[in-house]
Hints:
Elements: H1 3-9, E1 14-18, E2 21-30, E3 33-39, E4 44-50, H2 51-61, H3 69-85, E5 94-100, E6 103-112, E7 115-125, H4 128-169, H5 186-196, H6 198-201, H7 208-236
Antiparallel strand pairs: 1-2, 2-3, 3-4, 4-7, 5-6, 6-7
Amino acid sequence: MEELEQGLLMQPWAWLQLAENSLLAKAYITKQGYALLISDLQQVWHEQVDANVVSQRAKELNKRLTAPPAAFLGHLDGLLRPLLMDTPGPGKATFSCDHVAEALILRVRSELSGLPFYWNFHCVLATPSLVSQHLIRPLMGMSLALQCQARELATLLRMKDLEIQDYQESGAVLSRDRLKTEPFEENSFLEQFMVEKLPEACSIGDGRPFVMNLQSLYVAVTRQEIQVRQEHQSAGE
């Protein structure tokens, strides 16, 4: 897997609000190029370019600026990173996006060396394999990990119930009645969860809950998948 592809896969998703557009985005930038993935939960767009494309596009959009591609890439990284991390960035930069046919163009306006700097990310519809790599497979892995976690928590609760029962049989009593709990029944808990909690728990909305609460698990799952893939490649060599 190329550096840009692997680097992008290991990046967490960020939530963006650009005018009326709510978007999920992730990016990875090096001195050799960048990769960008954007989704509005209906479609997914992608752009990956090398330093040669960056140099050519920079000349077309910024005729008064002359710099090596690495300088433009470093500047783009400095602009995108605060946007994706939702932190204040250096200087003034504005972002907007337009839909052109099936493409999405993310436009950037800022300053570089005291001169206006413009950049357009030209994102085309992502391939099914890319969507699978960045969304379907990680989300399936996350679901399995959360299911395993829930099973272990259920086992821990049953062990705690046995511990409490042992205390009670030894004559121990609660000092405060409000702390008393019923023995954990997994099937009853799951049935109640499906009825009372599921509608709120699986409310996707504009994608922000997924970004705010699950990115550490997403990154852990993608890193694990990359590690397994590398081990398989090493075994096959």
